[in-house]
Structures are given as structure tokens and as C-alpha cells.
Amino acid sequence: MKQVGLFAAVGAAVMALAMAAPAAAAELLHNGSFETLGAGAQPEGWGGLTYYVDGTHPGLVHLPEWTVQSGSVDLTNTNTVWGPASAGDWSLDINSWDAGVISQDFTTLAGHTYTVTFDYSRNAAGAPDPATADVFVGANGVHVSAANNPGLFGTGGAMLWQSGSFTFVGTGHDTIQLAATVPGNGGVFFDNVSVSGAVPEPATWALMIGGFGMAGAMMRRRRMVAVTA
After folding, report:
1. 4 lies in the same domain as 49
2. Where does residue 121 rank: exposed (0-12), middle (13-18), buried (19+ CB within 10 A)?
3. Mean pLDDT, the chain, whole residue set
4. What is the phi-psi region of residue 73: left when phi exceeds 0, alpha when psi lies from -120 to 50, beta otherwise?
5. Using 50, 70 and 90 to split pLDDT, how confident is the model at 228?
6. 64 preceded by cis ω (within 30°)?
7. Are residues 129 and 17 part of one domain?
8. Cβ-proximal residues to 125 (8 Å cutoff; 6+ apart), any chain
9. CA-to-CA separations, 55 to 39, 60, 69, in angstroms, rounded
10. What is the pLDDT of residue 202?
11. Where in the sequence is the domain holding 212, given as residue range(s)?
12. pLDDT tens across 182-193, in order?
């Protein structure tokens, strides 16, 4: 019973220290600027690429790191009428041939606060007025509205970008979604999508492993003493 109590006490102390230890801030999303097009992806005749619901269009390339949940989305090049991109060479129109929804899963630390940031514009070649979409993680998010306002969003070949953000508390496993909320071809453009926040410091994991190792060594020593007494 003493051994069990010792192990529990050491374990509790290690967990308390780990929870008090600092956490590093890190980028949790992949391909948030949509620069990775997918193996074999080739721009189509209109200058960009269309990604459909996974598995429903055999032979077409999936959007790397993201899942197209409904509708379809486009990636457009910065050197076209749908440019410049906010970051890199490509940006995403959440309305391709119809309203699209994309998502990405990522791991968080439960109870820690995370920040979502993104840049947005509108399809300069034609979009509803306003073009609208939602960005959310769980019950937290924002509604994006991009009206036909050249002062805010520019014109064809000279797109301008605005920034959006919100925070949420991690659950341990979370999902970000970008979802068009208006039908039709052409809508809100997204780029530079990011989720940043806490991840365990390597020192924290070393502390936990070392602490449990120490507890085990102490228990083995007590057993040896008992045998040789």
C-alpha cells in the first residue's frame, strides 16, 4: 500500500508541475495558405483548380490537408484576375460551381485558448453582393461578409484583403470549417488561414517521463530492500 501511495504522490506532483510548465505557441494547421496543390494537379483552362467532395469525382486531385465536405472550391493563381493572393501564389474561393465547405482536424491541449486568423476578400470576377461565409471551430466562429466594395476588396487583378480572427478553447481534438453561406459560383476568398496556440514544451514531456521513471525506480528499490531484509 505504501508503494502505491508513493507512486500516486509522485505522479500527482509530476502532473501538477507539467500543468504549471509553460507551453510553446505553434501553428496547428497545414496548408493554410493553400500553396500545396496536390500531386499531379494542373491548372485548368480558366487558370485555377477545382476541388470536389472527396471520393465523388474519381481521378481528380484532393485538396491537400483539407477535406471538401460539400459543394466545390477553387484555388486561383495570384497572376490572374483573381489576384494578388494575400500570401504566396494561391488563394481559395469557397464558392466554386456551388457553395463549398472545407474542414481540417487538428490536436489541441484541452482547456487552452487558441487563436484563429485568416485573410478574406471576394471573387473579383463576379460574386453575390454580399458574398458570405462562416469560419468556425465548434461553437466559436465569425460570419464573413464581403460586399461589392472596391475600396475594401479591390478589383480584378488588384484584389485587396481584409483580416478576421476569433478565439476558442481547445477540447483536445478540434476541427476548423470554412463554409459558404450563399449559393452560386464565386464567393468569399480565403488565404493565410491559421490556428495558433499552446503545445506541450519538450521539457514538459521530459519532466513527466523522468518523474514516472523516478517513481518506478523508487518502487523497485523498496522491493529489493524488502527481499534482502
Report:
1. no
2. buried
3. 83
4. beta
5. very low
6. no
7. no
8. 81, 82, 156, 186
9. 16, 9, 10
10. 57
11. 1-22+202-229
12. 999 999 999 999
Give just the sign of the alpha carbon dihedral 46, 51, 52, 56: positive
- As a whole number of angstroms, the distance between CA 10 and CA 149 comes to 62
Neighbour tally for 113: CB within 10 Å: 12
Name the domain count of the chain.
2
Q: Would you tell me how many other CB atoms lie within 10 Å of the CB of residue 163?
A: 10
Find the mean pLDDT for residues 141-156.
Answer: 97
The Cα 49–Cα 74 span in angstroms is 5
Strands 90-93 and 113-122, sheet pairing: unpaired
More confident position, 173 or 57 = 173
Q: How confident is the model at residue 44 (pLDDT cuts 50, 70, 90)?
A: confident
Residue 41 per-residue DSSP state? -
